TrEMBL record:
Its EC number is 1.17.1.9. Keywords: 2Fe-2S, 4Fe-4S, Iron, Iron-sulfur, Metal-binding, Molybdenum, Oxidoreductase, Repeat. In the C-terminal section; belongs to the prokaryotic molybdopterin-containing oxidoreductase family. Its cofactor is [4Fe-4S] cluster; Mo-bis(molybdopterin guanine dinucleotide); [2Fe-2S] cluster. The gene is fdhF. GO terms for biological process: formate metabolic process; respiratory electron transport chain. This is Formate dehydrogenase subunit alpha. GO terms for molecular function: 2 iron, 2 sulfur cluster binding; 4 iron, 4 sulfur cluster binding; formate dehydrogenase (NAD+) activity; metal ion binding; molybdopterin cofactor binding; NADH dehydrogenase activity.
């Protein structure tokens, strides 16, 4: 009997885009252990601290276990019927009074592909609006834009395993040792095993920088300049891959002309890197047989995030490092399913499989499949939604699994917007800062309590199986979305995520051959998946996904970083911690993890600490034009000069780094420029 209560279930980690799969051993609701699976292609190594120990939150007594309705300043338990009636009544009223575009929907890159598919279907087919987005807007949308510009498809060009065989890996503005730990272990092994070279470009001397052969520390917001300067130098030396460019790339002459100003002198002057560093970087690239570039928010969360991402792709194309194993572009996805949320249509401009929402043929297809007319108005992205609330155009929002009140930039402005909403539905596992602004809170089940699929950073679709039953009255998000849709007049009858997945794949060329059977257990598929089930570990082996099958060099120019008044004399940088997932809404509820890192802090350089009389533990107030935070200092040479670093962990209101960041954004994708801010600091 005792044995029968012990169960082993396969799931997929929800703490980063590496997408490690593992078995969870449970006895009733108790998690006994997490057992990594060495056959699972994405990990093959182990799990990191979050994957191994980060799951006790599922039994936290802080879980939301029943629907809650606000009355005055307090929330009261309600039945599902009461909550759904209340939602339907208010959404119908707001739609009737203000039109369908007065309501917006934000899906979650922590929920499954099936749930994302249903959320955009609800917005479009039931509520008649393209106002649907997800948090990839906050992170890798610029990388997706760059890949679509230059190569055609918005996914990593190869597989995580490619990073083990590359001659040289370049990491720009990313810290996989903390944000994608298993991937960083893979790189460390490749360094030891076959002498893989590593170049790291970052403001902060992070763990990867300590392991690098070349560490570049350019001035904040100047990555595009050194990338372009190094590319120009390679071309000037005649060491570009002329054969590859001739056969597989367009736009070379125009691109070369665009590089004219990026001489070594100019590049060195703007970036602060020495000419010797720039030449050594170029030499290492020229001498490598295969080069892969990984990048993350240190690149994308800038005014010119899309253009800097494009400069990375240009460098790869000029040197022939695309379309073969061991090479390519790897924007590292932060959330576990940030790739899948976009893949399955949670973006205003795209239906599932990146089919344009403005394309008449796409609309006609979905009108037939879904049996209803579909909206033609362009939708708002989540950044525009906040402005639209302030302007009175957007009256209601249905938001799933995102603590937008602390993770969006300029958090004060976002919170003020939420206060103005006529009606706000928040669906989450825990009561978050965002939930505190809601009219209705719906209790969602976390990944361990549901089935479905996730898509990791390398376009790999994997199944997760239900480890535990939903706690209390919480439900998997797909069931809740279906209940809301039906209460609003739909007639959906999905009985399992499998049925949703089949419908989604039947209408998208990208996933044509993906089925639950082909994803059984530890099997996985990397899109595009052909109708016969053949998947694609490497994109572009034969041709790129642009007109004529060729890649396209895309000239870009440098956008000067934000300028702020002189009194803001310090540069603010921010990012993830190894122990916590993002803002900490889940991991702060894991006692073991929370005990280790209970609160945020600010990293201060030794020289700045000396100047200001700061030691470890000194309490400081940091102020930007947008807000202020109060944090304890950690003195470390990871940061230098007048740069400071604050983790994204936002366990307490006055520690939330996004109280300091602005609403300025990448000009193409609206991704906030989180990494471009100047602040001042006073000792308390
Ligand atoms: Fe989870 Fe990422 Fe760690 Fe793998 S590397 S166990 S996916 S957090």
């Amino acid at each position: 009997l005792r044995e029968a209560r012990i169960k082993k279930t396969k799931t997929v980690c929800t703490y980063c885009g590496v997408g490690c799969s593992f078995d969870v051993w449970t006895k009733d609701r108790k998690i006994l252990k997490v057992e990594p699976n060495m056959e699972a292609p994405a990990n093959q190594i182990s799990t990191c601290v979050k994957g191994k120990f980060g799951w006790d939150f599922v039994n936290s007594n802080e879980r939301i276990v029943e629907p809650l309705i606000r009355r005055g300043d307090a929330f009261y338990p309600a039945t599902w019927d009461e909550a759904l009636d209340y939602i339907a009544e208010n959404l119908k009223r707001i739609k009737d009074e203000n039109g369908p575009d007065a309501i917006a929907y934000i899906s979650s890159s922590k929920t499954t592909n099936e749930e994302n598919y249903l959320m955009q279907k609800l917005a479009r087919s039931v509520m008649f609006t393209n106002n649907i987005d997800n948090c990839s807007r906050y992170c890798q949308a610029p990388a997706t834009e760059a890949l679509r510009r230059t190569m055609g498809l918005g996914g990593d060009t190869g597989s995580i395993t490619d990073l083990s065989i590359s001659d040289l890996v370049i990491i720009v503005g990313a810290n996989p040792a903390e944000a994608h730990p298993v991937l960083s272990t893979r790189l460390r092994r490749a360094q030891k095993k076959h002498g893989q070279k590593l170049i790291v470009a970052d403001l902060r001397k992070n763990i990867m920088a300590e392991r690098a052969d070349i560490f570049l520390r350019p001035r904040q917001g100047t990555d595009l300049v050194w990338l372009s300067g190094v590319t120009k130098y390679i071309i000037d030396q005649g060491r570009h891959d002329a054969e590859f460019i001739k056969n597989r790339v367009t736009g070379f002459e125009q691109y070369v002309a665009s590089l004219e100003k990026y001489t070594l002198d100019y590049t060195s002057e703007v970036t602060g890197l020495s000419k010797e560093q720039l030449i050594a970087t170029a030499e290492m690239i020229m001498n490598a047989k295969s080069v892969a570039v990984c990048w993350a928010m240190g690149v994308t969360q800038h005014l010119g995030g899309s253009d800097t991402s494009t400069a990375i792709c240009n460098l790869l194309l000029v040197t022939g490092n695309a379309g073969r194993p061991g090479t390519g572009a790897y924007p590292l996805r932060g959330h576990n399913n940030v790739q899948g949320a976009g893949d399955f249509g949670c973006a205003p401009a795209f239906y599932p499989g990146y089919q344009a929402s403005a394309d008449k043929d796409v609309l006609a297809k979905y009108e037939q499949v879904w049996g209803t007319p579909l909206p033609t108005n362009p939708g708002l992205n989540n950044h525009q939604m906040v402005d639209a609330i302030h302007e009175g155009r957007l009256k209601a929002m249905y938001l799933i699994g995102e603590d937008m009140a602390v993770v969006d930039s300029n958090a004060n402005y976002v919170q003020q917007a939420f206060e103005k909403l006529d009606f706000f539905i928040v669906q989450d596992v825990f009561f978050s800062k965002t939930a505190s602004f809601a009219n209705v809170i719906l209790p969602a089940s976390p990944s361990l309590e549901k089935e479905g699929t996730f898509t990791n950073t390398e376009r790999r679709i994997q199944r997760l199986y239900q480890v535990l039953p939903p706690l209390g009255q919480s439900k998997p998000d797909w069931q809740i979305i279906q209940m809301v849709a039906n209460r609003l007049g739909a007639n959906w009858n999905y009985t399992s995520p499998k049925e949703i997945f089949e419908e989604a794949c039947a209408t998208t060329e990208l996933f044509a051959g993906a089925t639950y059977e082909r994803l059984e257990g530890y099997k996985s598929l990397q899109w595009p998946v052909l109708p016969d089930g053949t998947d694609t570990p490497h994109l572009y082996l034969d041709e790129f996904a642009l007109e004529g099958g060729k890649a396209r060099l895309w000239p870009v120019d440098w956008t000067h970083p934000l300028t702020l008044p002189e009194e803001y004399d310090l540069e603010l940088n921010n990012g993830r911690l190894l122990e916590h997932f993002h803002e900490g809404n889940l991991t702060a509820r894991v006692p073991g993890i929370n005990k280790k890192v209970p609160s945020s802090f600010v990293e201060v350089s030794p020289e700045l600490a000396r100047e200001r009389g700061i030691v470890d533990g000194t309490l400081v107030r940091i102020t930007s034009p947008y807000g202020r935070v109060k944090l304890r200092a950690v003195v470390t040479d990871r940061v230098h000069g007048k740069q400071i670093y604050i983790p994204q962990l936002s366990a307490k209101d006055d520690e939330t780094v996004n109280m300091l960041t602005s609403s300025d954004h990448d000009t193409i994708t609206f991704t906030p420029a989180y990494k471009e801010m100047r602040v001042k600091m006073e000792v308390l």
